[in-house]
Every structure is written in structure tokens, then in C-alpha cells.
Amino acid sequence: MIDWRELKPILFFQGCSERDLRRLARHCRRRFYGKFEQIHEAGAPSRHVCVIVKGEVVIQKEADPRDDPACCNVVLVPGDLFGFGEMMLRHYYTGAVALTECVLLEIDNGDFVKHFMAIPSLRDKIVRELSEIAWIVMNKLASGGLNELALYLYQRSERSGKLVGGKIHIQEKMSQQEIASVLNLSREYVTRLFAELRARKVVQFNRGFPIIDKAWLDRAVKDKDLAASIRYRRSPL
User: Fold this and answer.
1) Residue 27 belongs to domain with CATH number
2) Reduced to 3 states, what is the DSSP secondary structure of residue 26?
3) Counting runs of H as helices and runs of E as strands, what totals does the chain give?
4) Residue 151 contacts by C-beta under 8 Å, 6 or more apart in sequence?
5) How crowded is residue 57: how many other Cβ atoms within 10 Å of its Cβ?
6) Which residues in 36-165 belong to E strands, given as ranges?
């Protein structure tokens, strides 16, 4: 159990009354993790929903972030939750590792469903988050690697692109290995995708800096909201 006032500055709990926070604090346990310490492994029994108070947490499939940080799917920051996607399942389908020293609030799955989901403002936030996860997964299953690549290029172009004569010049170097790792695709597959795009003359590289045909990117990324919502290890929002 923690002091209810510790919940007030956490983004997830904004909108809760003092009475709500006092009740919820009874079900939160503070946990400390060192840098690169495993929080839970993929396939382990699903027991907790976690709220990040301090530090960064990597949500990943298999690889160790000490070996290649780019292999990680998503990096979460203070105020973010994780584990809620599996709270009704028996096992975690992803692993979680502390990328830095971390302070977390751990909440038993049963307590989260019974007490936290009972509060309308928190329930609405969780439903939106779960809907976004389903949205991203369905898009991935339906459209394959080329669309994933286009979404990533679009987000990078929004962050550092410069439009010159119908071409977007991304002002950051990008390697195919990095892109493959970030998107959890094989390097060989990403190489084939770029070969196809080069053949269509819509993507080229100038000393590692991508140049993208804007008209093609606009056609390829029909859902701009989806592109903006995805979070990448090397492209934080």
C-alpha cells in the first residue's frame, strides 16, 4: 500500500477524486527494478498490471536490449501502463525489461479489474488503449510488411522530413538493420521491400539519408492517425 497522494501526479489517475485515489492506493505496491532487470518474461503467468512512476520500460518479444536496443518494440515512460492487455489472460505474450532504473506500481490483475476498472474515467482510458492495440494489430495482419514500413517512414518524415520538389528528404540516417529491428521483420525481408520501392522509384538513399516520393507515401499511408499513434524504440513520440 502506498500514500494516495503519490497517485495524484500520475497521468493515468488524472480525473480521479481524492476518495477514489485513497481506495486505489490500497491495491498498489511499489517495486524497484535495476537497469536491464527483467520485470516479466513472455509466456510467464500474467499476474500484474504496472504503472511506471520513474524510468523507462521496454516491451519486447525475445531479444535482450543490452545486445541491441533497436530490437525492442516499444519503450514506455512515466505515466504509461503495461500488462493490461494480458490482464484477462493466463500468460504474458510480451516481455518487459527495465531500460533504466525504474520505480513501478504493481496492481494484481484481479484488483485492477474489480477496483480500477470500476472507475469510469479509468475504464474509458483502458478501453481506448485496448482499442488502439487491436487497431494496430489488425492493420498489421491485414496489410503486411510493406504497410508497416510505410507507416514507419511516414512517422520519421513527419519528425525530420524536408519537402523538396515533391520529394521528402529525411534528415536522419536510417539503416535497413535498424528498420528491420524496430519493425520486428527480418533484415532480408526489409531488403526485399526496399528493393521493390527502389524499382518503383519511390524511395532511395543518399549516404544513408532516405529520400521518399511524397505522392507515394500519401497513397501508402491512408490512416495518418494510426501512423501517429505507433511508438517505436528509435522514434519516440
Assistant:
1) 2.60.120.10
2) coil
3) 7, 12
4) 221, 226, 227, 230
5) 24
6) 38-40, 48-54, 57-60, 74-76, 81-82, 95-98, 102-108, 161-164
Residues 105 and 148 in one domain: no
Residue 191 lies in a domain: yes
Q: Are 103 and 53 in contact (CB under 8 A)?
A: yes
Q: At what angle do helices 187-199 and 120-160 cross, to 10 degrees?
A: 60
Cα dihedral value 181, 182, 185, 186, nearest 10: -20
Tens digit of pLDDT per residue, the chain (237 long)?
Answer: 799 999 999 988 988 999 999 999 999 999 999 999 999 998 899 999 999 999 999 887 654 444 443 344 577 889 888 988 888 788 888 889 998 999 999 999 999 999 999 999 999 888 887 776 666 555 555 555 788 888 889 989 998 999 999 999 999 998 888 888 777 777 888 888 999 999 999 999 998 999 999 999 999 887 777 677 676 654 433
**In whole angstroms, what is the distance from residue 192 CA to residue 109 CA?**
43
Q: Are residues 70 and 166 in the same domain?
A: no
What is the length of the chain? Answer: 237
Q: Which domain holds residue 53?
A: 4-118
The total of structural domains in the chain comes to 2
Give the amino acid at 204.
Q
- d(C-alpha 167, C-alpha 159), whole Å: 15
Residue 47 lies in a domain: yes
Give the CATH number, domain containing residue 197.
1.10.10.10
